[in-house]
Amino acid sequence: MNHDTVVANAKDVADRVLAPAARQSDREGRFSSEAVAALGAARLLGLMLPEEVGGSGLGPRSFAAVVATLAEADASVAMVYLMHVSATATIAAARPGAAVAPILKDIAAGRHLSTLAFSEAGSRSHFWAPVSRARRNAAGARISAKKSWVTSAGHAQSYVVSSLAPEATDPTQSTLYLLQKDAPGLSVAGPWDGLGLRANASAPMTLEGCEVAPEHQLTEDGGGFPAMLQVVLPLFNLGTAAVALGLCRAAVAATAAHLKTARFEHLGQSLGESLPTLRAQLATMQIDTDGLAARIDDVVDHLERPRETTMLRVLESKAAAGDVAINVTSAAMRACGGAAFSKQTNIERLFRDAHAGAVMAPTGDVLREFIGKAVLGIPLF
Ligand SMILES: Cc1cc2nc3c(=O)[nH]c(=O)nc-3n(C[C@H](O)[C@H](O)[C@H](O)COP(=O)(O)OP(=O)(O)OC[C@H]3O[C@@H](n4cnc5c(N)ncnc54)[C@H](O)[C@@H]3O)c2cc1C
Known about the structure:
By secondary structure, the protein is α+β, with helices and mostly antiparallel strands. Helix content is 53%, strand content 13%. The protein folds into three domains: 3-108, Acyl-CoA dehydrogenase/oxidase, N-terminal domain (Butyryl-Coa Dehydrogenase, subunit A, domain 1), CATH 1.10.540; 114-221, Butyryl-CoA Dehydrogenase, subunit A, domain 2; 225-376, Butyryl-CoA Dehydrogenase, subunit A, domain 3 (Up-down Bundle), CATH 1.20.140. The strands form three sheets. The chain has a four-stranded antiparallel β-sheet, with no helix packed on it. A three-stranded mixed β-sheet has the order 1-4-5. Flavin-adenine dinucleotide (FAD) is lined by residues 83, 115-119, 124-125, 127, 149-151, 194, 197, 202, 356, 359-361, 363, 365-366, 369.
């Protein structure tokens, strides 16, 4: 499939499956297995996998476009999808000797959802420093860990899990492993009842002596940190920025629709016709949204043609997008007044969903810390 086909497929899934269910999924905090099945049927789960295993062999440009399209309809599903694509890239980049081919084929065939289980209760948003430590045993490795947030918890077929390498002497010497959903000792440890992204099952999970065979050790011992930085971070940051873009586009559309249809009967005008202040707010939302789209194009270009400034742009993209999404959806709340506040529109969901990006790791604050250090030439870690 080419770029245009996958984006058209994403739009079809978004219109047919995501948009009609988004409000109810949000209200009930319900994970949409139907959405995942539709993404699989549309061959979107293997978007970036090589054609040899049945994937579409597409790159970051298509990934960002698909995520933004999904997020415009339901950001919870878009987040499930971006975690899956980030996890899939990590599995595809597995060290020689890892037996991941059957899983990649299943992903490309649309039968397998994966996700990332990095954050731990002990190291919180500092996902690069797991406090759990893998132990070597006859079977390979044994891991016990408290994973504080795992998107698609209990719904994914596999989990890319981080843990300190058995002989690690530094907090960043982690290893990544692949755990199957039915691994003994793996369980969802609580409910997910977030402010936003309520339909993506980002619940805590517990690993209690989970055994991992050597063929499911994805990185060399201590190789988890470089994989997090080189494989996961660019996709995760780009994908999170694309979720923000989808949310902004939805907020602009919902605000414009409201300003066109809500009327001051006594003046014989719509809100948009009557109030220049609202038109100005809508204009600022549009400017910010298009600015974010341009930033995403720029980071995509940097990923397609890597250069010295690529990592800086990757860091900036998520930091900036988190703020833009909060600003644009806040402006939508204000422009649509009581109608937004009383949930007559979908704007309050967009507003709540928009607040997740900045707290997801690397958080907006941590990214600023990294960017400031990078500009000053200070080592990040
Ligand atoms: C919807 C959702 C889905 C998620 N899904 C996943 C998932 O699938 N997999 C996964 O591994 N994790 C996931 N997470 C976890 C996420 O990536 C973060 O680890 C988590 O949100 C951090 O929250 P915390 O309260 O532990 O942050 P804390 O680390 O306690 O941070 C508290 C505050 O301190 C600030 N702060 C922390 N360190 C610094 C610093 N060095 N400099 C400046 N400020 C700093 C933070 O920005 C934040 O404002 C998810 C989170 C959310 C909200």
